[in-house]
């Protein structure tokens, strides 16, 4: 058969299963319109409340509105890394090909959200702290998170063998998961300019509901957009792998 | 903030913090929409590539569509 003949690599079954990911495509096709709807609706409402229908802060004045794009970006940066680490774990332990695809698809999205958290944070820092950047624990650990996403992407591109690249990148993602508690608790463990947690606290949120509303709506919008991007990039990754497998098959057929 | 501003100007003025707020929202919009467009373009391109490859090697499809019981000989040229 063409497939058996054309797969010189030992992981022929791997490609075979990926070649027909019907279940994922069905689930993705069902989820997509809902996620797009939530994304558009929540961005619309979030921008309306965030930029217009919410009060200014008594200390920060209008700059508090930067929070509505900054804080969800930071949450999504951490959520993206969790996705990366979990898919790395599932890919390594159960050899689930879709988990490997999910990891490869997540990394660029995570890098963008982390960059946005850093960039909007710098813009917020100037009028409120009087500086764009400080080398304190919170900011530095998020910068490291950004480089970890870039490192993950670099490792994936560094190997010709897709399976080896996936294993190395997954390992990096799992080992690097220590960064998440460091980021989360950096504001408690070290002295920092960055304010401590005010939304997710044991004693409940200390934020005014009028500000909490746009923040949470924007967070849902970011999450739904993350879902849209993840599904699209997984489809892209699956198509790319099929293209690669077919090219290898042709190369194999040309030189028997 | 001055009183002679129109409501629209007042909105864009953002209490004098417009040089911070609009770039922050702008970068978020540009990068998130950019990532979405980049992904869609790459997906489209890669699907066209796959179609072209499948058209070049129709054996795989024809075998499953017309002769599912086809033996290994089918693949041999």
Key words describing this protein structure:
heterodimer, A: 256 residues, mainly alpha, Four Helix Bundle (Hemerythrin (Met), subunit A), 9 helices, disordered N terminus, B: 77 residues, 3 helices, disordered C terminus
Chart the SSEs and their pairings.
The complex is a heterodimer of chains A (256) and B (77).
Chain A: H1 2-6, H2 12-19, H3 22-51, H4 67-93, H5 97-129, H6 137-158, H7 162-175, H8 179-189, H9 209-254
Chain B: H1 7-13, H2 18-56, H3 59-66
Number of helices of chain A: 9
Beta-strand portion of chain A reads under 5%
Spell out the helices and strands of chain B N to C: HHH
**What structural class results from the helix and strand content of chain B?**
mainly alpha
Poorly predicted segments of chain A: 1-12
Description of the structure:
The complex is a heterodimer of chains A (256) and B (77). Chain A has 256 residues and is an all-alpha fold. Chain A has a single domain, classed as Four Helix Bundle (Hemerythrin (Met), subunit A). Helix content of chain A is 77%, strand content 0%. Chain A has nine helices and no strands. Chain A has helices at residues 2-6, 12-19, 22-51, 67-93, 97-129, 137-158, 162-175, 179-189, 209-254. In chain A, α4 packs antiparallel against α5 and α6 (137-158) runs antiparallel to α8 (179-189). Chain A starts with a helix and ends with a helix. With 77 residues, chain B is an all-alpha fold. Chain B has a domain at 18-60. Chain B contains three helices and no strands. Chain B has helices at 7-13, 18-56, 59-66. The N and C termini of chain B lie far apart (79 Å). Residues 62-77 of chain B have low confidence and may be disordered. The chains are: A mainly alpha (256), B mainly alpha (77). The interface between A and B is large, with 44 and 34 residues.
């Amino acid at each position: 058969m063409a497939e058996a003949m054309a797969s010189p690599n030992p992981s022929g079954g791997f490609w075979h299963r990926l070649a027909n990911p019907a279940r994922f495509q069905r689930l993705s096709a069902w989820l997509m319109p809902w996620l797009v709807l939530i994304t558009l609706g929540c961005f619309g409402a979030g921008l309306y409340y965030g930029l217009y229908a919410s009060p200014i802060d008594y200390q920060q004045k209008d700059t508090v509105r930067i929070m509505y794009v900054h804080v969800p970006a930071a949450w999504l940066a951490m959520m993206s890394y969790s996705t990366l680490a979990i898919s790395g774990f599932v890919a390594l332990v159960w050899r689930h090909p879709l988990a490997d695809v999910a990891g490869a698809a997540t990394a660029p999205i995570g890098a963008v959200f982390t960059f946005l958290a850093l960039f909007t944070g710098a813009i917020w820092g100037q009028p409120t702290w009087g500086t764009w950047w400080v080398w304190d624990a919170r900011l530095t650990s998020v910068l490291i998170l950004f480089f970890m996403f870039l490192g993950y992407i670099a490792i994936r591109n560094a190997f010709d063998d897709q399976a080896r690249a996936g294993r190395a990148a997954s390992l990096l993602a799992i080992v690097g998961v220590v960064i998440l508690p460091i980021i989360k608790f950096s504001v408690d463990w070290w002295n920092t300019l960055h304010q401590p947690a005010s939304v997710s606290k044991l004693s409940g949120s200390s934020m005014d509901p009028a500000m909490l509303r746009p923040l949470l709506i924007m967070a849902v919008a970011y999450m739904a957009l993350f879902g849209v991007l993840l599904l699209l990039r997984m489809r892209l990754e699956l198509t790319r792998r099929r293209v690669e497998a077919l090219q290898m098959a042709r190369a194999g057929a040309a030189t028997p | 903030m001055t009183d002679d501003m129109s409501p629209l100007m007042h909105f864009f003025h953002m209490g004098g913090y417009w040089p911070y707020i609009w770039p922050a929202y702008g970068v978020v919009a540009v990068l998130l929409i950019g990532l979405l467009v980049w992904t869609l373009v790459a997906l489209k391109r890669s699907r066209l590539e796959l179609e072209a490859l499948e058209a070049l090697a129709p054996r795989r499809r024809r075998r499953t569509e017309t002769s599912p019981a086809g033996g290994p000989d089918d693949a041999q040229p």
